[in-house]
Each structure stands twice: as C-alpha cells, then as structure tokens.
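Inverse folding, one chain.
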C-alpha cells in the first residue's frame, strides 16, 4: 500500500494538473479530448472505443489489453457536475442493437468517465497490486476550436474575412444579397439584425452541408442553449460608419460578447484541461465533395491545430501556463469505405493534409501521429474481376434503401500531392478519377462474449493515445 501511494505520487508530480482526486489514495486520470468537424465521427468513435475497452477481445493492438494488464473497465460518474454525460448506452444500443442505425448527431460538449483497473508490470507493479486509472473522455465540436481564430481579430477584420468567404462560396449568395439593402450606419432595428444573423447562419449551415469545413463562428452551427441570444445574433458587415446606437456598432458589440461569453469559457473550462487529443477527420467525405472542400479542410485543420500551438495566441498561452497536450492523433475516419489496400494511401493523404499544422504541433512539444480508422466497421471486403482487371470493393447495406451493395470508391493516388496540389490550385473537379462514397448502415452483428463492436485500427489508436499510461 505504501509503495503504491509513493509510486502514484511520483507519476503524479510529473503530470499536469488534471481532474478530481477521488478516494483516499490518489488515482491518476487521463483527459482525452475527442474532436472533429460536424459529422466527422466523434460519437461513433467514443462509443466504440469505450465498448471495446470494456470488452477487449478485438483490442490486440492495445498492449495493456493484449497482455492482460487491464483487469477490468467500468463506467463511473464523471468528475464534472455541470457537463452533460455522453449518452454511451443510447449510442451503443443504436449501433449494435436490433435494426442497427447510426447514433443521432450531437450538439454540445459531453463527457464520460471510464475507469480502468490495471495491474502494472515490473517489480513495483507486482508489489503494489492493481491500480485504477480514470479515462475522462470529452466530446467537443471542432468548430469550437476554429473559434480561437476570432480572439485575435476585431469585428472589422473578421467581417472582411467572413464576407470574402461568403462571396467565394455559392451558398453565401442569399446572405450577400440581403446585405445590399442594409445600412450598417443606421440606427439598430432588432428585426434587421435578427434577419441578417438568420441568413448568415443559414449560409453557414448550407456551406457545411456542401462539404466546407471552416463555417465559423462555431455556435452558429451548434447554438445549443444560446439559440436566439444576442451573443449569437450578429453577422459580418462591410466596413463603414459605426456611430452610437448604429447597427454596425451593435453587431461589433455582440461579436465581442460572443468571444467573451462563448469562446473564452470553452477554452478555459474544457480545452485547457486536455492531456491527449484525437482529431477525427472525414477525409474521404471531403475528397468526395471535391478539390475545394479538400482545400478548405486543409486550411481548417491548420486553424484547428493553431489551438495546440498556444504561442500563437497570448490569451491562450496565459491560460494554459506551461501545460500542453502531450499527444495528438489525426485519424481519418470511416476507412471501412475503402478496401484495406488503400488504407496506406488514405493515411498519407491525411498526413499531408495536416502537415503544416502538425509541424507546428510537433514544435510545441506534442507527439503526433496519423492513422486511418473505422470506429464501427460497416462493410466487408471483396475482390472482383471487372473488364479484365481486379477491383477491390467493399460491400455493405445501403443506408437509404437497406439494400446490399458493393462499391468501388475509386483509386486514391499513392502520392498525396496529386490530390492536394489540385485542391490548392483551386480546381473545380478531380482530373484523374471520380470518387464515390456510399453511405452504409451499421451491419447486424452478433458479438461473442468479450467482444466489442467490429472496428478497424481502433486498438492502435488507443495504444497511441493512452497505452503508455496503462503500463
Ligand atoms: N462506415 C462508417 N461510417 C461511419 C463511421 N463513423 C461514423 N460514420 C458515419 O458518419 C456519421 C457521423 O458520425 P458521428 O459519430 O455521429 O459524428 P459526429 O462527429 O459525432 O457528428 P456530430 O455529432 O453531428 O458533430 C454517422 O452517422 C455515420 O454515417 C465508421 O466507422 N464507419
Ligand atoms: Mg456527435
């Protein structure tokens, strides 16, 4: 017992300050942030990860699971009383229950605590007996990280950039047209402000649907309990006169309120406490949407990862003190849409996509990696002869019709530069190949005792993210 306390005390002193201390003896905790832009696969990832940590037969790539060091894993009340609990049971029931379906889209931050009873190896471990490590998983939208960029921009600067984006995207046309009849220097009329903000939010939603990544401010897509509040009732306006009581002055004031009341609290209450981070990226979805979506995704990734290089923003540096995220995994999700022969190409594209941003994070002292994963495998592989050549296909049940279908998604180039280069040059369409994505429903599975839901490389992802803390 004494040795256990000392050993934990030692590891504690080199850790950054994390969650609550529970019980008489200190129990270490790891705070794992799971983020990604909307529909990237956060909910499915967390649900499958937790289920597979509880039933570990498919977790051979997680060393502590393979060698039996993890003795038990169980859910516990989370340390934060004011954050909604991640609805694990509901999501799991959706994914692997009868008539399996994908879980509902989630709209806010949520948290779940999984406690792992681990028997450490080595002499100290043998003497001390099993110890408990808490894994606190936090699900938050990647859009909220993009908002960090607002903190060092004034309303005028932000407006100029936001208007430029809206003009360049087809979805922005109605909003730009609505600005025509508006005089920002005139006295504020609430219905005018509201109508503009609604149009702006509508444009952001449509742009997101069309595959664009940077659709900030983040809460315009996910307003949650702030829906309709003044901090969310603003829109960019062209530069001009901004006298007292004018629409422009009030919009600028609300923009500042958004930063103060929405953006900063998120970084202070959630982001600042994260130890390990996985950034889920729907790379295949963006490729399917075309070169512009891929270029937009690349820029959004650079912005998102700016948050992990705190030197960029003085306020954030102050908030984090010396603390930083220790490991960051970039995971291309939904890799079950591809035959495994193409997974290396997908990983290479993901790596190239986050390259710039990753170099910066590396620079900031975090260890990073890229991987292609599927948190819930919905397909099986198949190879067929077609016009004299072998085609690697995936087969699954189509989401819309429920029919069984095989899909050839197109051949990803081995050299990621071919796709990213075309994207950077602003091409309208891919030259060499058409990329298809079909949406599959989760497969009906019958799990043997001890087995979690089927996945691709979720065990490797877990090894990278938390493996070192389970030895
Ligand atoms: N085939 C396949 N599809 C997946 C996988 N993970 C996610 N998807 C698809 O992606 C959609 C979004 O997944 P979610 O986990 O809900 O994504 P999210 O990031 O939580 O989305 P929001 O909560 O809306 O931000 C699902 O409805 C599935 O259609 C996977 O491992 N395989
Ligand atoms: Mg979700």
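Residues assigned per position:
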């Amino acid at each position: 017992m004494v040795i256990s306390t000392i050993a934990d005390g030692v590891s504690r002193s080199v850790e950054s300050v994390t969650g609550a201390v529970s019980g008489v003896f200190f129990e270490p905790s790891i705070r794992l942030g799971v983020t990604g832009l909307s529909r990237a696969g956060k909910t499915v990832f967390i649900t499958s990860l937790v289920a597979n940590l509880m039933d570990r037969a498919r977790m051979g790539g997680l060393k502590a699971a393979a060698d039996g060091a993890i003795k038990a894993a169980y859910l516990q009340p989370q340390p934060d009383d004011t954050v909604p609990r991640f609805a694990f049971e509901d999501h799991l029931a959706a994914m692997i229950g009868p008539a399996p379906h994908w879980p509902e889209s989630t709209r806010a931050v949520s948290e779940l605590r999984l406690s792992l009873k681990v028997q450490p190896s080595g002499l100290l471990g043998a003497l001390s007996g099993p110890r408990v490590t808490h894994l606190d998983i936090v699900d938050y939208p990647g859009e909220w990280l993009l908002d960090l960029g607002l903190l060092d921009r004034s309303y005028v600067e932000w407006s100029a950039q936001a208007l430029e984006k809206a003009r360049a995207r087809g979805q922005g046309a109605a909003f730009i047209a609505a600005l025509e009849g508006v005089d920002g220097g005139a006295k504020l009329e609430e219905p005018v402000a509201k109508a503009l903000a609604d149009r702006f939010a509508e444009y952001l939603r449509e742009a997101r649907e069309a595959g664009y990544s940077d659709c900030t401010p983040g809460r315009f897509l996910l307003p949650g309990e702030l829906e309709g509040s003044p901090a969310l009732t603003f829109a960019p306006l062209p530069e001009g006169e901004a006298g007292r009581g004018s629409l422009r002055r009030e919009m600028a004031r609300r923009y500042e309120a958004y930063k103060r009341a929405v953006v900063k609290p998120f970084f202070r209450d959630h982001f600042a406490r994260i130890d390990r981070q996985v950034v889920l990226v729907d790379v295949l979805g963006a490729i399917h949407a075309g070169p512009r979506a891929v270029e937009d995704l690349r820029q959004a990734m650079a912005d998102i990862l700016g948050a992990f290089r705190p030197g960029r923003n003085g306020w954030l540096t102050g908030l984090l003190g010396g603390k930083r995220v220790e490991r960051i995994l970039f995971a291309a999700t939904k890799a079950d849409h591809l035959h495994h022969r193409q997974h290396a190409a997908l990983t290479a594209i993901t790596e190239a996509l986050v390259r710039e941003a990753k170099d910066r994070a590396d620079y900031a002292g975090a260890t990073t990696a890229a991987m292609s994963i599927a948190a819930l495998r919905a397909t099986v592989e198949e190879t067929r002869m077609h016009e004299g050549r072998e085609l690697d296909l995936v087969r699954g049940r189509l989401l819309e019709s429920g029919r069984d279908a095989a899909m050839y998604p197109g051949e990803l180039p081995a050299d990621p530069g071919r796709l990213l280069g075309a994207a950077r040059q602003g091409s309208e369409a891919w030259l060499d190949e058409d990329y298809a994505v079909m949406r599959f429903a989760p497969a009906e599975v019958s799990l043997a005792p001890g087995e979690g839901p089927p996945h691709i490389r979720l065990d490797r992802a877990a090894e990278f993210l938390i493996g070192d803390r389970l030895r």
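The chain is about 40% helix and 15% strand. Strands lie at 29-36, 70-76, 110-118, 131-139, 276-281, 327-332, 367-372, 380-386, 389-397, 404-407.
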